[in-house]
């Protein structure tokens, strides 16, 4: 891990996290959100994340762990870390009630009476901010570790994370704004949910810096790949289809993979 990239990696992670503020701005100032564009963007983000996970992060995990422990042992460690990342993310998802989880797209029950509606909206916005903050924590570690290892890889991960943080900012700010009429409060909670990413980066750095080795770094990359693949299939692609269409989400997915492949080829 390149310590010279420390400031760059932390700044990049913070900017990716703060893109939730862009979503809040769209919710406040756009007369109508372009859901088709939103759908394509989320598909694009999923394409970038999936491509990075399989072509870069997992490959790097196999290479670095294999160089130290041999290919056979590396296979077990890297695959275990990959599916472990999925498992941890799934457990986090299950801990969040579905109506408060921004990645569950149920129609839900009929609206409550008028006197309860705004209170429920406010509560939903707060829990959505908490849920997104929990999800953003490991994403911050992913962006930070990627940038510490390689600046181009870090930028690629940050772009994908930033794109999918925009609709999350909308998900936090909209219910709080409609419940309170207070744009500042809605914007603040949206930003706080995004700040979980630099907090995650800082936590990962403090916890791992004294134990880092090629084996640990390769294992962390595989774990991060599992997180990103799960997020793509569980959150981004279902949301992309809901806001647009199956084909629009698919075209965004393919475009994200193509752009990611070209950026890696040009940067190599």
Briefly summarize what is shown.
The protein is mainly α. The chain is built from ten helices and no strands. The two termini are 18 Å apart.
Structural description of this entry:
It is a single chain. This protein is mainly alpha-helical and 268 residues long. It has ten helices and no strands. The chain starts with 5 loop residues before the first helix and ends with a helix.
Oligomer: single chain
Q: What is the count of helical runs?
A: 10
The beta-strand count equals: 0
Radius of gyration computed on alpha carbons: 19 Å
- Identify low-pLDDT runs: 105-111
Q: Structural class of the secondary elements?
A: mainly alpha
What gap, in angstroms, lies between the N and C termini? 18 Å
How large is the share of residues in beta strands? under 5%
**What characterizes the major β-sheet?**
none
H-E string: HHHHHHHHHH
Share in helix: over 70%
Mass-distribution shape: globular
- Rounded mean pLDDT score: 77
How are the elements arranged and paired?
Layout: H1 6-17, H2 20-29, H3 35-69, H4 71-94, H5 114-149, H6 151-180, H7 183-194, H8 196-208, H9 214-243, H10 246-267
Helix pairs in contact: 1-5, 1-6, 1-8, 2-6, 2-7, 3-4, 3-6, 3-9, 3-10, 4-9, 5-6, 5-7, 5-8, 5-9, 6-7, 9-10
Please describe the structure with a list of short key phrases separated by commas or semicolons.
268 residues, mainly alpha, 10 helices, globular
